[in-house]
Structure formats: structure tokens, C-alpha cells
Design the sequence.
């Protein structure tokens, strides 16, 4: 088992029990959204690469991250097929946008904030895999636990890059985005997704 205690110490809150209960009742939504998140993560890494072609450390870390996220995407697609679930587009929850809207515009600041938000999203993904896994069937539990190592490394890669490109201590910005993340996780969320907050009654329109 991967030691994720640094991630649990980094995040300001754990996944609520009510989210876990809702996830077990809506595993199809979780798996479909999980697949979409893996693809989005790969796309985000490649966008960072295209915008920063001279930063070799970023290129190396993001290239590896993008490849791993695409492998995970393919693995989730196989799980969906095996379970007779059709992959389809789902409306995104507010989670990522609640942080992204506060990313600064100036080029250097934009990069630092983007990397910090990337670290937080990867940390939450790792925490959710860890929290949800013991409640799942053996095959899915094994798969989610297998993701912990890479997700934990992705979180650290993002955070290390943010620190390396900042001329100042990033603790204040990290704390700012962590507070936004905590609010997104711990308040009612009308859309139930992998990264959503407290579940409310799911309507057909929401899925």
C-alpha cells in the first residue's frame, strides 16, 4: 500500500461519508466521469507542454504524466466495456472551475497557479481512490489502489514545478486554492461526479 499520509495532510478535508455512499449507489457515473477526468488530465499536461516549450523539467514531467493518464483512460474504458456501461459525455461539476476561475492572468503567475491547482486535483483524486477502494468489488478495488502511486507522484510533480518557477514562497497561494477546494468538497453540489461536493438528490437532468 502506498503511503498517502502526505496527501491527507496536504488537503484540508477528507471525502465526506455521504459522498462515498452516493458513489456506491451511482458507480456508473463515477466510472464514466473517472474516464473523462483521466483524458482531461492528459490534455491539461499537454497544454502546459505546448505553452512552455523551453522548460525541460516541465516537459519531461508532463510528458510522462500525460502518457500515464492516457493509459488510465484506456484502462477505465476497458472496465466500462466489461461492465456493459456505455461511455458518454457528462456535464462537468463545479469542482475544477471553482479553482480555475481564480488563476491569475500574468504569464508567470498563471503558470504557478495552474500547477498548484493541478497538484490539488491530483491529491484529491488520490484521496478519493484511497477512500472509495475498500468499499468496491475486488477487481475495482485492486485497480483503484494501483492508481495511488502515480497519482501521488503527479501531485508532487505539480507542486515541485510550482515551487521551482516561483520567485516567492507559494504557501499563500497553495493555502488560497486549498480553501477553495475545501469549500467545493464540503458544500452541497447539484451534480454528482468523481470530484463533486456533498451530494444532493440526483435528478435525471443532472446526469
Sequence:
Amino acid at each position: 500500500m502506498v503511503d498517502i499520509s502526505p496527501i491527507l495532510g496536504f488537503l484540508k478535508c477528507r471525502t465526506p461519508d455521504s459522498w462515498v455512499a452516493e458513489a456506491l449507489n451511482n458507480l456508473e457515473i463515477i466510472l464514466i466521469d473517472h474516464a473523462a477526468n483521466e483524458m482531461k488530465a492528459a490534455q491539461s499536461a499537454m497544454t502546459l507542454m505546448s505553452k512552455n516549450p523551453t522548460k525541460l523539467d516541465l516537459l519531461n514531467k508532463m510528458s510522462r504524466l500525460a502518457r500515464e493518464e492516457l493509459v488510465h483512460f484506456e484502462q477505465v474504458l476497458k472496465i466500462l466495456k466489461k461492465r456493459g456501461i456505455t461511455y458518454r459525455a457528462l456535464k462537468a461539476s463545479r469542482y475544477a472551475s471553482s479553482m480555475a476561475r481564480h488563476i491569475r492572468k500574468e504569464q508567470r503567475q498563471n503558470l504557478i497557479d495552474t500547477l498548484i491547482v493541478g497538484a490539488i486535483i491530483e491529491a484529491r483524486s488520490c484521496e478519493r481512490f484511497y477512500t472509495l477502494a475498500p468499499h468496491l468489488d475486488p477487481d475495482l478495488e485492486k485497480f483503484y489502489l494501483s492508481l495511488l502511486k502515480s497519482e501521488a507522484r503527479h501531485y508532487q510533480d505539480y507542486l515541485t514545478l510550482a515551487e521551482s518557477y516561483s520567485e516567492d514562497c507559494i504557501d499563500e497561494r497553495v493555502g488560497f486554492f486549498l480553501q477553495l477546494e475545501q469549500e467545493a468538497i464540503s458544500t452541497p453540489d447539484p451534480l454528482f461526479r468523481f470530484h463533486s461536493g456533498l451530494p444532493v438528490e440526483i435528478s435525471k437532468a443532472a446526469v
In short: The longest strand covers residues 188-189. Residues 16-194 form a domain with the Ferritin fold (CATH 1.20.1260.10). The radius of gyration is 17 Å. Confidence is low (pLDDT under 50) at residues 202-207.
